[in-house]
Design goal:
The complex is a heterodimer of chains A (352) and B (82). Chain A has 352 residues and is α+β, with helices and mostly antiparallel strands. Chain A contains 9 helices and 15 strands. Chain A folds into 2 domains: 3-191, 3-Layer(aba) Sandwich (Peroxisomal Thiolase, Chain A, domain 1); 200-207 and 237-350, Thiolase/Chalcone synthase (Peroxisomal Thiolase, Chain A, domain 1). In chain A, 28% of the residues lie in helices and 23% in strands. Chain B is built from 4 helices and no strands. Classes of the chains: A alpha+beta (352), B mainly alpha (82). Chain A binds chain B through residues 57-58, 241-244, 246-247, 250-251, 280, 282, 286, and chain B through 40-42, 44-46, 48-49, 61, 64. Chain B: This is Acyl carrier protein.
Chain lengths: 352, 82
């Protein structure tokens, strides 16, 4: 195979270079869903000894959204997916694969994706969930890209969705203010020009304890037996070692981000947007510095009003930048997800 | 050649200045990073990694919590520089 580069676009932007293939793939449409309820830092501080000022200074988070008690990840995913399909101009029956990236669908089985596909009346698609935490969406985009390019499917629906409020220990000063709920969706499909660059991804299983569900589901069992109730855990919430995560996210992930840009045959100055996982605004700021990202490249800062929504954060942030005119449709965006595992994935994409 | 503690202090002060805007002369041996210099845990991590680059040392996460004062960091770097 030879490398393929499309004709230069009329806007003068560079195009992504990818290995030769009979097909290209791109994101045809993005959708997002934010639950109605806005949760302020003051409300979070009813349960932890902290302040609005401290939370903003440490994380950049001003408010986040929490889903209703009866609102599920499938409900949120459905809303985001409908918007993505609508914006892509693709009908449900054109979708061949549904991939849901989530770590907060509260059923061990069945997966959420088949339920979502049924709701959307997608006829008989391959449908499955992936567990790659905050990097789940970028993993999904990579899988979808490969499927479309290889001819496995013409259109793939990728949804990143989380209801982290179900797994947050509201008394944990280290994480209670970080997490939020939401969904983002992308329709990936065949394209005349390359729209998704090579994915840089990997994992560090030796750091599995850095961000983790505090206990396993089976630790809940004693609670079911009266005489063992004292051994029971309260609820297996998600916890993390903030400083270790910060260090890894900023300094290792900046290198991965640069490699993803280079792998697409670009330089940071060619980008029209930088959309890192919305983990913490301090991580984003330090990463920008480390990357040497030129000032003209707009950077996603959706975290301020959305919190950290794990798998949903990148599509939500990109959709907002496009909706608010901060980033141009057809422009090149670097997206990078990183989180529990530890796992990460980064790629340059053409924004829909 | 190994750097003197004074040279390490000066280099560290430059890193602190870049991260926090604090004047380099405020970074003195007896100052506490958190209490006196008002440096939070995330800024401290940035300072640590920049110090690793500058001085060619490795400062593990577990070690960072022991570096409460400027003197602790300078001594650690002096003892571990390559």
């Amino acid at each position: 195979m030879t490398d393929t580069t499309a004709e230069p676009s009329t806007t003068g932007r560079k195009t992504i270079t990818v290995p030769g293939s009979i097909r290209h793939a791109r994101i045809h449409g993005l959708g997002g869903y934010r639950p109605e309820r806005v949760v302020t830092n003051e409300e979070i501080c009813e349960f932890i000894d902290s302040s609005d000022e401290w939370i903003q200074q440490r994380s950049g988070i001003v408010t986040r959204r929490f889903a209703r008690e009866d609102e599920t990840v499938v409900d949120m995913a459905e809303a985001a997916a409908r918007q993505a399909l609508d914006r892509a101009g693709i009908s449900a029956d054109q979708i061949g694969v549904v991939i849901m990236a989530t770590v907060s669908h509260p059923y061990q089985t069945p997966a959420a994706a088949p339920i979502l596909a049924h709701r959307l009346q997608i006829p008989n698609p391959a449908a499955f969930d992936i567990s790659a935490a905050c990097a789940g969406y970028c993993h999904g985009i990579s899988l979808a890209n490969d499927m479309v390019r290889a001819g496995t499917a013409d259109y793939v629906l990728v949804v990143g969705v989380e209801k982290l409020s179900d797994f947050t220990d509201k008394y944990d000063r280290g994480s209670a203010f970080i997490f939020g709920d939401g969904a983002g969706a992308a329709v990936v499909g065949v394209s005349d020009v390359p729209g998704i660059g090579p994915t840089l991804w990997g994992s560090l299983g030796d750091k599995a304890d850095v961000i983790t569900q505090r206990e396993s589901w089976t630790d809940l069992r004693p609670a079911m037996v009266e005489e063992h109730r004292e051994e029971a855990i309260e609820w297996p919430a998600f916890v993390m070692q903030g400083q270790t995560v910060f260090r890894w996210a900023v300094f290792s992930m900046a290198e991965v981000a640069v490699e993803a840009v280079e792998a697409a045959g670009l330089t940071p100055g060619d980008l029209d947007a930088f959309v890192p996982h919305q983990a913490n605004v301090r991580i984003t700021d330090a990463m920008i510095k480390r990357l040497g990202l030129p000032e003209h490249v707009p950077v996603a800062r959706d975290i301020a009003e959305t919190g950290n929504t794990s798998a949903a954060s990148i599509p939500l942030a990109m959709a907002r930048m496009l909706d608010e005119g901060e980033a141009p449709s057809g422009g090149l965006a670097l997206q990078i997800g990183f989180g529990a595992g530890l796992v990460y994935a980064a790629q340059v994409v053409v924004m829909p | 050649m190994a750097l003197s503690e004074q040279e390490i202090l000066e280099g560290l002060a430059e890193i602190v200045n870049e991260e926090t805007g604090l004047e380099p002369e405020e970074v003195q041996m007896d100052k506490s990073f958190t209490e006196d210099l008002d440096i939070d845990s995330l800024s401290m991590m940035t300072i640590v990694v920049n110090a690793e680059d500058k001085f060619g040392v490795r400062i593990p996460d577990d070690e960072v919590k022991n570096l409460t004062h400027v003197r602790d960091a300078v001594t650690y770097i002096a003892n571990n520089q390559g």
